[in-house]
Amino acid sequence: MSGHSKFANIKHKKEKNDAAKGKIFTIIGREIVIAVKEGGPDPDNNSKLRDVIAKAKANNMPNDTIKRGIEKAAGAANADNYEHITYEGYGPGGVAVIVQTLTDNKNRTAADVRSAFSKGNGNVGTPGCVSFMFDEKGQIIVSKEDYDGSADDLMMLALDCGAEDFNEEEDYYEILTAPNDFSAVREALEKKGIIMSEADVVMLPQTKTALTDENDRKMLQRILDLLDESDDVQNVYTNLDGELDEE
Prior knowledge:
The chain has 247 residues and is of the alpha+beta class. The protein has three domains: 6-75, Orthogonal Bundle (Arc Repressor Mutant, subunit A); 83-132 and 207-238, YebC, transcriptional regulation domain (Alpha-Beta Plaits); 133-205, Alpha-Beta Plaits (2-Layer Sandwich), CATH 3.30.70.980. Helix content is 43%, strand content 21%. The protein is built from eight helices and eight strands, in the order H-H-H-H-E-E-H-E-E-H-E-E-H-E-H-E. The chain has helices at residues 6-14, 18-39, 47-58, 63-75, 106-119, 151-160, 182-191, 214-229; strands at 83-90, 96-103, 123-124, 134-143, 165-168, 172-177, 198-205, 233-238. A hairpin with a 5-residue loop joins strand 1 and strand 2 (96-103). The relative contact order is 0.19. Mean pLDDT is 88; it is low at 1-15.
């Protein structure tokens, strides 16, 4: 989630082992609970739930699992109360890091996040200390393998659907929206038959920070790996320029 090639990271994520896939399913399951609690179990009347279902399908979550998750969330008045908590801080070399979590135990999550930063020679800061360096955007990724038309056609379609920006990369197209327009744009593109590799509201860095020291790069990778091990961590964003060499 910190590299230059978003789609390369998506492919890497999809090719991870079963344990990693299990974590993705756990995160999506929690997102279903929150979406159902906030807007009810009917996707037709709950755009947030529709977005989570689309995300679940993009990650190959079985339909039965999605359905059970919705039914469980709708019928469990005493279900776990998850809440979103965002942590901000700095990794080695001044790289800005944003950690988005979804947790039912704030103390556990805080301890995990602080431990990850500490072991990677970073530090957790106060809310807002790095988020001003990022823009919140709806981001839709379309693999060139999944789209036969021209870049111009897709760009015009995306803009007609309400997108605010369009970028062509080596192996994918990136469609950006205002956060509040994300659901409408995603659904409009879906109705046009556009296959999306990933669609979510993300934090995009305004500027990038280069990290040339090899030990700093190893320590930043350690922070990211430790955060990835926590089921409470949903997303991690950095302003690192380029990608780390993962083992």
